[in-house]
Design goal:
Length: 271
C-alpha cells in the first residue's frame, strides 16, 4: 500500500478529510522553502504537493508563476527538489509527498532515472499538469515500476471518455480542478463542484481532492463536505512570497494551515 493510500484510509477511519498543501520548492531558495514546508506540515497538512519550478507554468496564476521564477533564479533544479525531499525524510516527516510539475523538466531529467531517484529520496508520486492520460504511457510505466503513484487532473470540461481514461491509469487520488482557468483566481461554485465530485467518485475508486481558488476555512469546509481532500496552494505561496528568515512569518503560515485544516476534522464521509 502506498503512503498516499494509507494516508487517505487513516483519515477516513478518523472521520477526517485531507488537507493537501502546495509549496513551490526553492522559493526563493531551497533552504527557505524547507522552512515553509516544515511550517506547513507542522500546521497539519496531510499531503504535501511540492512544486517543481518550470519556466512556462501555463496552468498557474501569477502568484505561483512568480514563485517559479524566483525559484529558478535561485538555481533550483529537479535534483535540488529531490534533495529537499531527502531532507524532509531525514528529519522524520512522514506525510506523503507528491512532486507537482510539468512534463518538460521531468523528461529532460530522464523518466526512468527520475522515478528511481524520486523513490530513493522518499517521494510518493507525481502530478504532471500538462500530461494527459493518453500520452502518459512512458511516465506511467516509469513511476509504477518504482511503486509510486501517478496522479491525474480532471476538470469541469472532462467528458466520460476522459474520466474512463484516467480511471485506467490513475493512482493515489484524483485531482479535480474546480473551475476552468489558472490557479489562484476566482473561488469555485460549491454546488457545481459537489455534483462533479460525485460523478467522478461513481466512476473511479480513488479519493477525489479538489483544488484551484480555495483559500479560506469556509471554502475548505464547503468543498470538504463532498470531496475526500481539499487542495490549497496560491494562498500559502502568497504568504511565503518575499518571506524573510524571521520565525514570525513562518508561525503565521503554520497558523493559517491549522485554520484551513480545522474544518476537515470530523466531517461526514465523502458522498
Amino acid at each position: 500500500m502506498s503512503r498516499i493510500t494509507a494516508c487517505f484510509q487513516r483519515l477516513a477511519s478518523q472521520g477526517e478529510k485531507a488537507l493537501v498543501a502546495y509549496v513551490t520548492a526553492g522559493d526563493p531558495t531551497l533552504d527557505q522553502s524547507y522552512g515553509v514546508v516544515e511550517a506547513v506540515l507542522a500546521g497539519g497538512a496531510d499531503v504535501l504537493e511540492l512544486g517543481v519550478p518550470f519556466s512556462d507554468p501555463t496552468a498557474d496564476g501569477p502568484v505561483i508563476e512568480r514563485a517559479a521564477v524566483r525559484s529558478l533564479k535561485g538555481g533550483t533544479t529537479v535534483e535540488g527538489v529531490l534533495g529537499l525531499v531527502r531532507r524532509l525524510r531525514a528529519a522524520g516527516h512522514g506525510q506523503p509527498v507528491v512532486l507537482f510539475g510539468y512534463y518538460n523538466p521531468f523528461l529532460q531529467y530522464g523518466l526512468e532515472k527520475l522515478a528511481a531517484d524520486a523513490a530513493d529520496a522518499g517521494a510518493d508520486g507525481f502530478l504532471v499538469v500538462d500530461l494527459p492520460p493518453e500520452h502518459s504511457a512512458a511516465m506511467h510505466d516509469a513511476v509504477k515500476g518504482q511503486g509510486l503513484d501517478l496522479i491525474y487532473l480532471l476538470t469541469p470540461t472532462s467528458d466520460q471518455e476522459r474520466i474512463d481514461a484516467v480511471k485506467a491509469v490513475a493512482g493515489g487520488f484524483v485531482y479535480y480542478v474546480s473551475r476552468t482557468g489558472v490557479t489562484g483566481s476566482a473561488a469555485p461554485e460549491v454546488a457545481a463542484v459537489g455534483a462533479q465530485v460525485a460523478r467522478i467518485k461513481a466512476a473511479i475508486p480513488l479519493p477525489v481532492c479538489v483544488g484551484f481558488g480555495i483559500s479560506t476555512p469556509e471554502q475548505v469546509a464547503a468543498i470538504g463536505a463532498d470531496a475526500d481532500g481539499v487542495v490549497v496552494g496560491s494562498a500559502l505561496v502568497a504568504m511565503a512570497e518575499g518571506l524573510p528568515s524571521g520565525e514570525t512569518n513562518l508561525a503565521g503560515i503554520r497558523a493559517r494551515v491549522d485554520a484551513l485544516k480545522q474544518p476537515l476534522r470530523r466531517l461526514p464521509a465523502a458522498k
